[in-house]
Amino acid sequence: MRENYLLWILVLLIVGATGACSVFEKNSANPKIEEIKSGNYIGYPAKGVIQKKITSQDSFKREWAKAYSELNPAPPLPDVDFEEKVVVMIMTETKSSGGYTINDISISKNQNATVISYKDVTPGDGCMTTQALTRPFVFLSTEKTDKPMHFKRESVTEDCL
Fold this sequence. Notes:
Blueprint: H1 2-27, E1 33-39, E2 50-54, H2 57-67, E3 85-91, E4 101-109, E5 114-123, E6 137-143, E7 149-158
Parallel strand pairs: 5-7
Antiparallel strand pairs: 1-6, 2-3, 3-6, 4-5
């Protein structure tokens, strides 16, 4: 009798673990993000914050050329399979010093849209910064979607004390 009881407990544990794994996989279905290029110095001519979803090689080539318009030669255009992926471009406005970054980038999907969340970080108290004009930027790739893409920007200040 005790052996049957232990066998049923073992079966329930195995079934429960399998169920937990499938729930985890369903809940972790957010697309993967891959960084293509990031930095703090870029010559993009448009002012203000730029947040774009790029869906074709031609558009990517144009945006890359604008981004590196002040650099000769520009870095080579990375290969992206636009049958499978899209490129996301995020740039802050021009800053009067260094120490600014874009970080904690995440992506999530819901029924209506894909949401790119990120932090626009300002250096706070105690931070030593470069005294030069900067413009933090990042190019990312993620899985292709026909849904609209929304951007959620959180401005934060990080102290260095």
